[in-house]
Amino acid sequence: MKIKRIGLDLAKQVFQVHGVDGEDRVALKRQLRRQQMLAFFSKIDPCLIGMEACGGAHYWGRELMKLGHTVRLMAPQHVKPYVKGNKNDMNDAEAICEAVGRPNMRFVAVKTVAQQDLQSCHRVRTLLVRQRTAKANEIRGLLGEYGIVVLNRIESLRRALPVLLESTDSIPGEGLRQLLMALREDLVYLDERVRQLDQVIERAAREDTVARRLQQIPGIGPVTATALVASVGDARQFRRARDMSAWLGLVPRQQSSGGKAVLQGISKRGDAYLRTLLIHGARSVARVASRKTDARSQWVDRISQRRHANIAAVALANKNARIAWALMTRGTDYVPQG
Questions:
Q1: Last residue of a domain, one of 184, 207, 230
Q2: Are residues 172 and 272 in the same domain?
Q3: Domain co-membership, 44 together with 117
Q4: Which of 220, 240, 252, 285 qualifies as a cystine partner to 263, CB 3.0-4.6 A?
Q5: Same domain, 95 and 125
Q6: What is the model's pLDDT at position 74?
Q7: Domain range holding 151?
Q8: Mean pLDDT in residue range 75-103
């Protein structure tokens, strides 16, 4: 019996398979161990395989595509409405099989190894920055217990620590001095690790054609450009620029009914890290917009004067996301407004 469509529920060791034939009748129900996966699917004629976009999905997507299958990844929240009955592996696999066959389903592109490498670099950098912030707050808190106040900027802490450790009067006890010396070594180590990853990201931004093109947009630097390349990949998966902006959570939430449209704040859907980078980059552009005379800067400045500066930053981030979609899909350079 020829299988038309398969729903694959992923896990670490035990995988559930649910397949249907050309008339959508159940043709396959099976549980597989991890080591059985590739051997099993190599014996099946090429078909459509649906999976949730979760841990390991991109790896299995690439491996199954090598065997000739067509792989479609879906966000778990889009699969959930198709689950019937209680939650278990069999029902989840059946729901995935049903969802992947829907004509209007939204899919996630399978990432390449290079994209995953770059995204992993961003994730590790984010983790290190978070650890560095926690370390700086810990040092500042310990100093505060002894009546030593340092400004709430990590640069101020970097300058103050050597001075405090060299002074014989600033630190009241030798125990605290030893603790601060060890914590300062941790802070220096984290700074160096972040600096190394910044160099990796900057090198990737120089070598990637799409990333170089994205950096032409004011408010998008090497970090944001490479994050877009790693997360979005092929921007043609979005039909239009607004779809990518909505995927990033930069468009208003809707509470519309009865023909009455009610728009609220931004939806904040999708990748919070990528959205944060776009907004911070836009904020840096909006801060100096009043000093410039080009149409783009004047537009941002008018919004800042009429509304709040944060609203202007989000509006510019939304515009930058749409421009990024255009550059990524058309392969053209950024042309500034007059």
A1: 207
A2: no
A3: no
A4: 252
A5: no
A6: 94
A7: 113-207
A8: 94
Domain count, the chain: 3
Q: Are residues 144 and 234 in the same domain?
A: no
Tokens matching residue 277: 């980078």
Q: Are 244 and 325 in contact (CB under 8 A)?
A: yes
* Rounded Cα–Cα distance for residues 20 and 27 (Å): 5
Identify whether 47 is part of a domain: yes
Using CA atoms, how far apart are residues 224 and 335, in angstroms rounded to an integer? 19
Does residue 336 lie within any of the structural domains?
Answer: no
* Least confident piece of the model among 248-252, 267-271, 297-301: 267-271
Question: How high is the pLDDT of residue 137?
Answer: 93
Residues 142 and 119 in one domain: yes
Q: How confident is the model at residue 311 (pLDDT cuts 50, 70, 90)?
A: very high
Assigned domain for 107 exists: no
Asked whether the beta carbons of 337 and 296 are under 8 A apart, the reply is yes
Tokens of residue 228, six digits: 């877009």
DSSP characters for 80-128? GGG--SS--HHHHHHHHHHHHT-TT---BPPPPHHHHHHHHHHHHHHHH
Which residues, including other chains, have CB under 8 Å from residue 91's CB and lie 6 or more apart?
83, 84, 85
Paired with 126 in beta bridges are none
Classify strands 14-20 and 5-9 as parallel, antiparallel or unpaired.
Answer: antiparallel
Q: Residue 219: which of 270, 279, 273, 274 has the closest Cα? A: 279
Scan for tokens 């778990």, then name that residue.
76
Based on the domain organization, do 222 and 281 belong to the same domain? yes
**Mean pLDDT on 65-79:** 95
Residue showing tokens 């790896």:
59
Burial class (CB in 10 A: 0-12, 13-18, 19+), 8: buried
Of 100, 133, 157, the one marking the end of a domain is 100
Q: How many degrees, rounded to 5, is the angle at CA 168 between CA 166 and CA 174?
A: 95
Q: What is the spatial distance between Cα 177 and Cα 38, in angstroms, rounded to a whole number? A: 58
Residue 22 in domain: yes
- Could you write out the DSSP letters of every residue in 259-317? TB--EEEE---S-HHHHHHHHHHHHHHHHTGGG--SHHHHHHHHHHHHS-HHHHHHHHH
CA distance 204 to 211: 8
